[in-house]
């Protein structure tokens, strides 16, 4: 099965994920314990993921530039390379690429860690100590995803552009000034890219934690739940990305026409 769980279990996990979203919107907790755990998760997600995000972005930036510049140069319109690549990087490639990397590295880790605590009955100990697992485990992780994914997205974008400039100037003799000045991206595109990253961060945090807390059985189900979590996160990200792109496309056109 695609999600390695039956339909009723999957919908139950979705229900728990929706309840987490409701709690995020309508509840607050500013205790020192919550702040401490949030900062730990921010360090784990941000600093720990920086190297792999930058390395992947640099490689894909070079690959996309090589392929796009080759085709446009054969048509004699190499001056548009910067514009095409900047739009691609800002609107789609950078936020989606960063979300996919974080899903594979952090989302799976969140699910596996919480699921292991669940099957070893550590979650029950939290209830005995009168500690809500949502505020102790879930909310700090969701907060870290919401905060750090837009930052990683901006760094990924800058890395993609830098590697694109290097390939364009060395292989196709397109100067950096032409590469950058030909771009038709605006501050609205950067804003939309950041909004996408925040939404993707919420999706990663909520689904990974919900799939971890709802695992049942023994250690075998920890792996199944982790796989299911990653697959579900990626599917939701791609579906939500389509609708966000659709909405942002028409809203940006409306702003330009006013």
Automatic annotation (TrEMBL):
Residue spans crossing the bilayer: 42-66, 147-172, 198-218, 230-250
Keyword set, alphabetical order: Chloroplast, Membrane, Plastid, Transmembrane, Transmembrane helix, Transport
Main location per the UniProt record: membrane
Cell location: Membrane
Keyword Ribosomal protein attached: no
CC per GO annotation: ATP-binding cassette (ABC) transporter complex
Membership in a protein family: Belongs to the MlaE permease family.
Protein name, entry field: ABC transporter permease
Species annotation: Dichotomaria marginata
Gene behind this protein: ycf63
């Amino acid at each position: 099965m695609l999600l390695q769980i039956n339909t009723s279990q999957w919908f139950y996990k979705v229900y728990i994920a929706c309840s987490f979203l409701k709690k995020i919107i309508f509840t607050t907790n500013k205790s020192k314990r919550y702040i401490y755990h949030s900062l730990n998760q921010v360090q784990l997600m941000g600093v720990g993921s920086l190297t792999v995000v930058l390395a992947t972005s640099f490689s894909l930036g070079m690959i996309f530039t090589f392929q796009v510049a080759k085709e446009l140069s054969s048509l004699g319109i190499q001056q548009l390379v910067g514009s095409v690549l900047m739009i691609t990087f800002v609107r789609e490639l950078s936020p989606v690429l960063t979300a996919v990397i974080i899903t594979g590295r952090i989302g799976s880790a969140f699910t596996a860690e919480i699921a292991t605590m669940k099957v070893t009955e550590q979650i029950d100990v939290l209830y005995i100590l009168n500690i809500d697992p949502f505020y102790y485990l879930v909310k700090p992780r969701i907060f870290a995803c919401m905060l750090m994914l837009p930052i990683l997205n901006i760094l990924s974008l800058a890395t993609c552009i830098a590697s694109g400039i290097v390939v364009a100037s060395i292989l196709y003799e397109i100067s950096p000034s032409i590469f950058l000045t030909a771009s038709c991206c605006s501050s609205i595109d950067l804003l939309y890219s950041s909004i996408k990253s925040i939404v993707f961060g919420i999706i990663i945090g909520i689904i990974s934690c919900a799939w971890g807390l709802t695992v049942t059985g023994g250690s075998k189900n920890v792996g199944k739940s982790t796989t299911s979590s990653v697959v579900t996160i990626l599917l939701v990200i791609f579906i939500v990305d389509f609708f966000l792109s659709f909405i942002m496309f028409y809203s940006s056109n409306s702003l330009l026409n006013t």
